Amino acid sequence: MNLDGLNGFSIEVPSWAYGNSGTRFKxxxxxxxxxxxxxxxxxxxxxxxxTGLAPRVSLHIPWDLVDDWSDLRRHAEDNxxxxxxxxxxxxxxxxxxxGSLCNPDPxxxxxxxxxxxxCLDVMRQTGSTDIKVWLxxxxxxxxxxxxxxxxxxxxxxxxxxxxxxxPDQRMLLEYKLFEPxxxxxxxxxWGTSLLHCLALGEQATVVLDTGHHAPGTNIEFIVMQLLRQxxxxxxxxxxxxxxxxxxIVGSADPFQLFRIMSEIVAAGAxxxxxxxxxxxxxxxxxxxxxxxxxxxxxxxxxALAKALLIDQEALATAQRDxxxxxxxxxxxxxxxxxxRAALADRREERGLPRDPVAAFLASGYAQKAATDRAGxxxxxxxx
Length: 383
Ligand code: LRH
Ligand code: MN
Prior knowledge:
The chain contains 13 helices and 10 strands.
């Protein structure tokens, strides 16, 4: 089984997955949860130490604000990871009730733009090159505001942020069908994000969050189309049964994840030079967070490994010959192939544990964290 295609493949994990999280009904707390960005990065580094797959950690501003960014950067590098995308936060201020970058009030739009300029400054100190922009902006009632007017304001605000990017920096523009707005979101779909990116310039690309589509959406088609436009900047991987559930990627629909990775492999976008940033965006509301993250990166690797087994030549022949069942069977053969033993062998060859979850549970890391992190305030989604 040739899994060389996995060489150089890496996944970026989110700092917020290591803090407490929940729903509007309850945010559960567990012992040993990080109390600050340093401890979040330490936990993320443990995932990388055991899987060799997760060398970057995304930050969220202001949740991960620190006094000394270069010190946090040093802490990350001392633990074998680097700081990845910086996420802006436009969903926790009263000023943004009627929107942020789309708000009718120019002063509020200015405030939201300035927040991004602050994020770009953080990136210059952490060595990050990606700023991820997700807008909670939208409407709850028809007529509440001008759909077109909001697009014009959005384009103007994004232009102000885009023009402040350094040459090596990228804007990752995320879309979402609904929530927190329930009539219309100002960036509801890939088409709207792409249109704004094309209007802005080459340094603007689309983020595809797998939980942000209408049920039944053919997400791999969107992946293919964004790759064709060379505007797929990143994924926010997670899975869902109904809404934006932010569950462990591949847990709800492993076949969908495989189909997505099949489009990635077909375009060679799994290779580092593609610059597609494979990120997780998840919350472990009830399960152990570090084992949950380990399971997540292994699920992505497993889906990619299966996609790498697709006999592309035979597939192209079957497709050319109109061999409907033959072509489908070639894909299903790869999907149905159990790659777990081969991946465990590959880890062992690299000095990594065959079973990273078991290795973590046996390491005593969680018990030590629970003891060491007794006092203080635990990091919490939204805190
Ligand atoms: C919005 C979102 C976005 C992040 C947040 C943590 O639903 O997907 O990517 O800011 O989750
Ligand atoms: Mn997301």
